[in-house]
Each structure stands twice: as structure tokens, then as C-alpha cells.
Design brief:
- The protein is mainly β.
- Helix content is about 0%, strand content about 30%.
- It has a nine-stranded mixed β-sheet with strand order 1-4-7-10-13-16-19-21-22, with no helix packed on it. Strands 3-6-9-12-15-18 form a six-stranded parallel β-sheet, with no helix packed on it. The chain has a four-stranded parallel β-sheet with strand order 2-5-8-11, with no helix packed on it.
- A hairpin with a 4-residue loop joins strand 21 and strand 22.
- About 30% of the residues are buried.
Length: about 170
């Protein structure tokens, strides 16, 4: 029986240029466009739209009905909940102290690195070319303006803009 199930056609659509790790999990009715790379053990929910030139790193978790526009890299340590919109060119980080080499001048390895997690909550939207510095939570239905540099948590239903991002409006809940 397991042998028969392993030969079922995928329930998602992927462009022939997409590279999807065999251990990635992709939900029903998700669309993956040109030149997208999805890493090992990544989990992508149902009815997502993953546009062109996207890199989704190993172990990233993405909820249902998420749209990720062109030229976005989602590194290990980022979790994206259901219904999130990520505009083109958004940059996520996952290292508070990025360096190529140690203080002794040696190339850093994975043991020299500490991943700092980021959470994007239900229904949030991130505008084009925003930078999301790791270690924060973007609240439910928050809106990140285009080009904003987000360095601290964003409350639910808040609109933030600027560098560093600051709240310009927040809906009372």
C-alpha cells in the first residue's frame, strides 16, 4: 500500500525550474513558480502562492494561503502563519551577529552560528523591500510598510513604516 501511495501525483503545481527537496512537505493547491528552491523538511501549507526566485530554507514552516512575491529569501528560523502576504524583495535575517570568519580569521562553521527565530503571525502583510531583523514577532494583521526596517516586535493590527520602523497607526481590538 505504501508503495502505491508514493507514486501519487503531487497535489500542488511546480514550475519545471523549481528545486524541491524530497523531504519538503507542500500542501494541496499550492503553486510554486520559476526558479524557486525549497529546502529539506520545509513545510508549506495549502493554497499558497510562491512566486519567482524564492528561496525557502531547510525546516522553514509556512502556513496556509500565504503569498510570497518575487525575490524573497526565507531563512531557517522563520515561521510564517496562515494568510500572510510577503511583498517582493523582502529580506529576513536569522543571525544577530553575522560574520564570515572567527576572530582568529578562520571561516565560521555552523557550530559558530546561533539561529535567532522570527515569527510572522496570522494575516500580517509585509511590504516590498522591507527588512525583518531576526528575533522579533510580527503580530496578527500587522502591516509593514514598503522599505521599513523592522528591528523590534510589531503589535497586532499595527501599521509600521520607516527606518527603524515605528508605529503610525494601530487598530483598537
Amino acid at each position: 500500500m505504501q508503495h502505491l501511495l508514493s507514486h501519487r501525483p503531487p497535489t500542488y503545481e511546480a514550475h519545471f525550474t523549481a528545486e524541491i527537496a524530497p523531504t519538503a512537505s507542500i500542501g494541496n493547491k499550492t503553486i510554486i513558480e520559476n526558479n524557486t528552491i525549497i529546502g529539506k523538511n520545509a513545510k508549506i501549507g495549502e493554497q499558497c502562492k510562491i512566486h519567482r526566485n524564492i528561496y525557502i530554507d531547510d525546516n522553514v514552516e509556512i502556513g496556509n494561503k500565504v503569498k510570497i512575491q518575487d525575490n524573497v529569501m526565507v531563512p531557517h528560523g522563520v515561521t510564517i502563519e496562515d494568510g500572510v502576504f510577503i511583498g517582493p524583495g523582502v529580506a529576513f535575517t536569522n543571525d544577530k551577529w553575522p560574520r564570515s570568519i572567527t576572530e582568529k580569521g578562520e571561516l565560521k562553521t555552523s557550530t559558530d552560528w546561533e539561529c535567532t527565530k522570527t515569527l510572522v503571525k496570522y494575516g500580517a502583510s509585509i511590504g516590498a523591500n522591507a527588512t525583518i531583523v531576526c528575533g522579533i514577532t510580527i503580530g496578527e494583521w500587522a502591516m509593514i510598510g514598503a522599505g521599513a526596517v523592522v528591528t523590534k516586535d510589531v503589535p497586532a493590527h499595527a501599521l509600521v513604516i520607516g527606518n527603524p520602523a515605528h508605529i503610525v497607526r494601530q487598530k483598537k481590538i
